[in-house]
Amino acid sequence: MFPPRCPVCKEIVDERYQLCTTCAEKILRLDFSPEVPPPIKKVLRVARYREGLQPLLHKLKFDNNLNVLPALKKILDDVSSREEILNLAKPDDKI
Predict the structure, then answer these.
(1) Is residue 88 part of a domain?
(2) What CA–CA distance (Å, rounded) separates 20 from 5?
(3) All residues at 6 or more sequence positions from 2 whose CB lies less than 8 Å from its CB, including other chains
(4) Is the pTM of this model over 0.90?
(5) Residue 6: inside a domain, yes or no?
(6) Which of 8, 35, 37, 94 has the maximal Cβ count within 10 Å?
(7) Closest CA to 70 of 61, 60, 81, 84
(8) What average pLDDT does range 12-35 have in this prediction?
(9) Is 52 contained in some domain?
């Protein structure tokens, strides 16, 4: 009766708390920040704040809307299981 929807744009998706293709392309990204203050040598960005995470985090922070937590968890789970992330934290890597 109520199909699952993208937590950001409300487009119909396959499973609950899943991002639609458009939002996933806008939000999820893996890259290293070129602007890193010393003594930090690398900062990995895994999602874009302003393009999609901002409304979810604002709902959580300012509206105390805990209904966004499963969507945020799904985003973190999707990102953390990516091969690029798993290959980053090798003990022999020099930063």
Answers:
(1) no
(2) 8
(3) none
(4) no
(5) no
(6) 8
(7) 60
(8) 83
(9) yes
The answer as to whether 15 is a domain residue is: no
Question: What DSSP line would sit under 23-87, residue for residue?
Answer: HHHHHEEEEE-S---TT----EEEE-IIIIIHHHHHHHHHH--GGGHHHHHHHHHHHHTSHHHHT
Q: What is the pLDDT of residue 63?
A: 94
Mean pLDDT of the chain: 81
| 46, two tokens | 């895994």
If one counts the domains in the chain, the total is: 1
pLDDT tens digits, 30-67:
777 777 778 877 777 778 887 778 988 998 999 999 98
Q: Are 29 and 46 in contact (CB under 8 A)?
A: yes
Give the structural domain span for 45. 21-82
Give the residue carrying structure tokens 């290293």. 32
Looking at per-residue confidence, does 92 or 51 come out higher? Answer: 51
